[in-house]
Amino acid sequence: MTKIAIFASGSGSNAENIIKYFANNEDVNIQLIVSNKEDAYVHQRAKNLGVESVTYSRSDFYHTGKVLECLLQKGIDFIVLAGFLLKIPENLLRAYPDKIINIHPALLPKFGGKGMYGDNVHKAVVESGDAESGITIHYVNENYDEGAVIFQAKCPVSATDSYEDVAKKVHALEYTYFPVIIDKLLNKRRAESDDFGFE
């Protein structure tokens, strides 16, 4: 059983989609929602779906070991960032090497980096005149949006599209692919572990 923690800072629509996808999966359990915002709607979604959620401040993340202690106590094996806006601190990166992934609402390396999240990204895509956008699922390292790419999916952007139009297309890709790619990634990890005789 792989126990997952989802980190989210806002509404949590991706988090809800992932929780529902794995609801009847015997190999994967969404154990915990972690947020840096007490009033984030993701907490209500978690409550509705019977998943525990907790809030830790920016200071908790960067200046204490509270978050890591919680993850270890809950037996968390894997971390999924779904609209989480803080940079992941070094102690979590060390504790979960290649076990933290993120989804970015554009085709990295374009439109990545600090401050490039949500509608900021979609506005930048429209302003650039690019003919396509999409999603990038990638491993997390010490820099924003620079970890190794796992998967990308594209959608067209027309000259008449508003940033809201682009956002709808990108969200559709997120909902379609993010849970599936998480599932495939975890299956691959389990298969590789089995090859070496590990549980």
Automatic annotation (TrEMBL):
Keyword annotations from UniProtKB, A to Z: Purine biosynthesis, Transferase
Pathway: Purine metabolism; IMP biosynthesis via de novo pathway; N(2)-formyl-N(1)-(5-phospho-D-ribosyl)glycinamide from N(1)-(5-phospho-D-ribosyl)glycinamide (10-formyl THF route): step 1/1
Active site: 104
Coiled coil: none
Binding site for N(1)-(5-phospho-beta-D-ribosyl)glycinamide: 12-14
Positions of (6R)-10-formyltetrahydrofolate binding: 102
EC number: 2.1.2.2
EC top class named in words: transferase
InterPro entries xref list: Formyl_transf_N, Formyl_transf_N_sf, GART, GART_AS
PANTHER family given in the database record: PHOSPHORIBOSYLGLYCINAMIDE FORMYLTRANSFERASE
The protein, known as: Phosphoribosylglycinamide formyltransferase
Native source species: Dysgonomonas termitidis
